């Protein structure tokens, strides 16, 4: 699912500035690619707040439109997914995007 959400849309969502920074960073992960939580922390301007960034990702109000499923652990493991379907859904979305669908 290609992004249809913009930074301006994120600014209208309930949440803190920190959460908005993180959710905006998620929009910049290209379709079919993944980033680690540490990379998203750096992308959001909060490189020393990896755990807080992971928490903000877990509070994403619009998965998969705000593509939190593209974030994986630094050891390459899938990590968690708080949206419907859990980790199995996250694995499916990553595989689907990497295949070009």
UniProtKB/TrEMBL annotation:
Ranges for domain Methylated-DNA-[protein]-cysteine S-methyltransferase DNA binding come to 17-98
Name by which UniProt lists this protein: methylated-DNA--[protein]-cysteine S-methyltransferase
Q: Which reaction does it catalyse?
A: a 4-O-methyl-thymidine in DNA + L-cysteinyl-[protein] = a thymidine in DNA + S-methyl-L-cysteinyl-[protein]; a 6-O-methyl-2'-deoxyguanosine in DNA + L-cysteinyl-[protein] = S-methyl-L-cysteinyl-[protein] + a 2'-deoxyguanosine in DNA
**A single Pfam family, by name?**
DNA_binding_1
Protein family membership: Belongs to the MGMT family.
Tell me the keywords, alphabetical order.
Answer: DNA damage, DNA repair, Methyltransferase, Transferase
E.C. number(s) listed in UniProt: 2.1.1.63
Gene3D superfamilies hit by this protein: Winged helix-like DNA-binding domain superfamily/Winged helix DNA-binding domain
The keyword Transferase is assigned to this record: yes
Which enzyme class? Answer: transferase
| Organism annotation | Candidatus Enterousia avicola
Recorded hits in CDD domains, A to Z, give: ATase
BP GO terms, sorted: DNA repair; methylation
Gene Ontology MF terms: methylated-DNA-[protein]-cysteine S-methyltransferase activity
């Amino acid at each position: 699912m290609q992004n249809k959400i913009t930074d301006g849309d994120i600014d209208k969502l309930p949440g803190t500035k920190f959460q908005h920074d993180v959710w905006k960073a998620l929009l910049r992960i290209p379709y079919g690619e993944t980033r680690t939580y540490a990379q998203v922390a750096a992308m959001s301007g909060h490189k020393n707040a990896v755990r807080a960034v992971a928490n903000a990702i877990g509070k994403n109000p619009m998965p998969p439109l705000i593509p939190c499923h593209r974030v994986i652990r630094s050891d390459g493991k899938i990590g968690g997914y708080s949206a419907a379907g859990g980790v199995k859904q996250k694995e499916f979305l990553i595989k689907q995007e990497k295949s070009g669908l």
